[in-house]
Design goal:
Order of helices and strands: HEHHHEEHEEHHEHEEEHEHEH
Strand content: 15-25%
Number of helices: 11
Largest sheet: 6 strands, mixed
CATH architecture of the largest domain: 3-Layer(aba) Sandwich
Radius of gyration: 35 Å
């Protein structure tokens, strides 16, 4: 029933005004019914109404069946159609590789509940806005790997984002390795525009590929890199060590982000560097990237229609036949 009434439009909607006739006929029937009885009343069996037969009670359904018949036939006259819409995308979108830091410092609590959870949530909201783009996900700490290849199935990307957590990689901050992994995902792409969004909260201190070397490779493949430094200024409550059971011990530590490096990577590749010191600031950064990376989409819309009036005509006739059969057989009134 829900699928029947979804995406419904009417070819002749003016006929729907005839639905006003149903309550009008109901009022007319009500007053006519009263006029059938004389003003002068004589003793009768009115007080025995509770002993009336089922047959007598069912006669009250006859006007309802007639109203349903009229309503269904009026809707059929309005010619309802179900719209089946298809979209054919002619132009190519943008291929975006999101590269996210998973070092233990991403658990710092200067963002609530921590930097990682805020980054995951804001990244997922960004993915929702990129309807026609392929999006992939790479992560890094002391090493790097591809979490999700480029795909238009954004639900899969968001599932991977949701399940990200610190501790699955050797600790450290291998920015060069993370960027190289993102470049590797995009280098063979035939998209008109290729973008990496690299998010980190630290200083490169691990990995065997230098960040600027990865930036040069990105430049060779015409990949634009937007870099984001996430973290407040001053000190933040950050993991400083780890217990034998795997739980982190937190303490105040100075926030250190190699902004000069991130700025240089962005400039080399034609991107832009951003600094996020709050969750709201991070949202604004992703919103700005969303505006910067827009491409005109040549979309051809094809609409197909499924005629639905026959359903209402069928039920209108069924209600009419049922009413006539009951009126002149089982519920027939004696003159």
């Amino acid at each position: 029933m829900q699928s029947l009434f979804s995406n419904i439009q009417f070819v002749n909607p003016e006929f729907l005004w005839l639905l006003i006739l149903i309550p009008a006929i109901g009022l007319w029937y009500y007053f006519k019914h009263k006029d059938r009885y004389a003003t002068l009343r004589i003793p009768g069996l009115q007080n025995t109404w509770q002993f009336s037969s089922i047959r007598g009670q069912l006669r009250g359904l006859l006007p309802l069946l007639r109203a349903l018949c009229i309503g269904a036939l009026i809707i059929a006259l309005a010619r309802p159609q179900q719209v089946l819409k298809e979209e054919e995308i002619k132009a190519e979108g943008i291929d975006i590789a999101m590269v996210m830091d998973l070092s233990s410092s991403m658990l710092a609590q200067d963002f609530k509940p921590d930097r990682l959870e805020v980054s995951k949530r804001v990244a997922a909201e960004f993915v929702d806005k990129r309807k026609f783009d392929r999006v992939g996900l790479a992560v890094f700490a002391g090493e790097a790997f591809t979490q999700c290849p480029l795909t238009t199935d954004h639900g899969v990307v968001k599932d991977f984002l949701e399940n990200l957590k610190c501790g699955i990689l050797e600790d450290g901050t291998a920015i060069g390795m993370g960027l190289a992994t993102g470049v590797n995902r995009l280098k063979d792409s035939e998209a008109k525009s290729k973008v990496i969004i690299l998010l980190t909260d630290g200083v490169n201190n691990a990995g065997y590929i230098k960040p600027l070397t990865s930036a040069e490779i990105a430049q060779e493949f015409n990949i634009k890199v937007y870099t984001i430094g996430v973290g407040s200024t001053g000190e933040a409550l950050t993991p400083v060590s780890r217990r034998s059971d795997g739980r982190y011990i937190f303490g105040l530590a100075r926030v250190e982000i190699d902004e000069a490096l991130l700025q240089q990577i962005a400039e080399m590749t034609g991107g832009k560097y951003f600094r996020a010191t709050s969750a709201e600031g991070l949202k604004k950064i992703y919103a700005e990237i969303d505006l910067l990376e827009r491409t005109e989409m040549d979309i051809t819309s094809i609409k197909r229609y499924s005629e639905e009036f026959h359903r209402f005509a069928f039920w209108g006739m069924m209600f009419l036949i049922l009413e006539l059969v009951l009126r002149y057989t089982f519920l027939r009134a004696i003159p």
